[in-house]
Amino acid sequence: MKNVKLLLIFLIVGLSSNAQDNQKRIYIKDNQSMVLILNNEIIGSIDLLKSIPSNQIQELNIHREEKLSSKENLFYNNDKGGIMVAKTKFDIETKVQKDLNEFFGLNADTDLYVNGFLLENKNYKIASNSIAKIEIIEPDNLFLDRRVLNISIK
Known about the structure:
Blueprint: H1 2-18, E1 35-38, E2 42-44, H2 46-50, E3 57-63, E4 83-88, E5 94-96, H3 97-103, E6 112-114, E7 117-118, E8 125-127, E9 131-137, E10 148-153
């Protein structure tokens, strides 16, 4: 009888530990919205699109299922969001990834995240008026091995 109870305890502990999510996450953000990519080089918010006169927008595509990156996501709910791709000749003030990293004392080639998604393309620029918050995320030796910047787009 003691062996059966002991076996049940080990079985329950073993199954419950395997049922845990093995992906390492940093925090949860529920209000993540779509991200705008202008001219295949500028990342901004939907509010930025609203500020562009409609006669300046040449093309607009909405991809609800696509994400900014196919790799890592810092957020738990990686199913939120989507991408809007637009083409325009409207001039927008931007920040380059290298300059943002150097401003915060990081290496110029440090990875940059936007709304938790890794920017795989280092040539993307960030629209200045779309930046809501910039965080320096410290390494946790599980998911990140060095400090990175996470830019929250409003």
